[in-house]
Hints:
Number of strands: 3
CATH class of the largest domain: Alpha Beta
Oligomer: single chain
CATH superfamily of the largest domain: K homology (KH) domain
Order of helices and strands: HHEEHHEH
Number of domains: 2
CATH topology of the largest domain: GMP Synthetase, Chain A, domain 3
Structural class: alpha+beta
Amino acid sequence: MATRKFQRNAEDVHRELTDILRGLKDPRVKDAMLSVVRVDLSTDLSSCKVYVSSMKGMEAAKEAVKGLKNAAGFVRHEMGQRLTQLRRSPAFEFIADNSIEHGAEIARKLNELKYNQPQQEEAEDKEE
């Protein structure tokens, strides 16, 4: 079971990582409209899996991950500068995720159901 301190460290890494990614100048990262979906921090704080998703789709997320892998050293250095309470800065592994795209698809389907349902009820009322 994760302790409160561990959870707080993971939240701090997530928050700072989001801020660092916004400041990167690599066009693959900047143009992808990235969002950090999840951060899996190891218990010894030596490594961190970062799941990123793009509003532009899975291909844009995969391209951004290539840029993030090139910038991993810079990201690790910045994290060490910002989170001084961590004994060491974790090594980052970036993974493309399609959860934003999947969530948008679910929202679109729900909206379709919402707008189609009143039309069906009106049709049933007219039949009676």
